[in-house]
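User: For my dataset I need records formatted as: sequence, then structure tokens, nothing else. Please produce one.
Assistant:
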Amino acid sequence: MAIDKQKRLGQVFLKNQDIVQKIIQTAEIESKDQILEIGPGKGVLTEPLLQTGAKIIAIEKDRELVKFLEKRFKNNLNLKIIQADIRDFLQNTEYAILNTGYKVIGNIPYYLTSHLLRILLENPIKPKLIVLMIQKEVAERITTKLPKMNLLSVCVQFYAKPEIICYVPRTVFWPKPKVDSAVIKLTPYPVIACPARGGTRSEATRQSFFKVVKAGFKQPRKLLLNNIYNNLKIEKDKIKEIFEQLNIPLNTRPQNLSVQNWIFLSQKLTFFLVN
């Protein structure tokens, strides 16, 4: 398999078995589980996953790797190998796995991370658990807390509780990538619920939340008040009034708001977004 093809697809292969076992343990897999494995590659994770007795659906984009996997795991009834782009699979699949509880495991190409997380977390049938190998810096951005929140951390933490399990040096991959990695665990909330006080949110409420958050982080170093005013075209006096109601100082910057703060702020601003 040519190196240039691997680079083009963003493929790197994990060599360290200790890290493999760490991923398996983190996913808390039982024989009754259904696992969606993203980017199985040559089956480094697939083999120990099968040893748990769980049913595996492995999604691999590379045709040559699909052939390799089919030969390696020939006649294994607990494994279904599908050649597909994981983004297309998640958005268009008719497989029953997305109609039941399932877990997601994978060592994904780094350029896919944000888009893939959005698709997984916005899927109407959410996974019970997500354990992924991603770029170290991205993992740290996702898990960051006050007072250093960012657009990615707010968006992910709206849907799930993130946790960095361990860091993985670039030296345990082939070919060696340019950056270090991390294993991240995401535990989606069982319903689209407010982490602060529970309850189900409508699609309209969700859309308002992300509209406000994206506007608020448009220029992260500027004051939140000005970002909302400039990007949502809401009267500044109205914004100041809402800030006062929510005890948000006027000199607040986007990084200083928690997910709960953003939820409450978007709820207050919803009226002005639709009128």
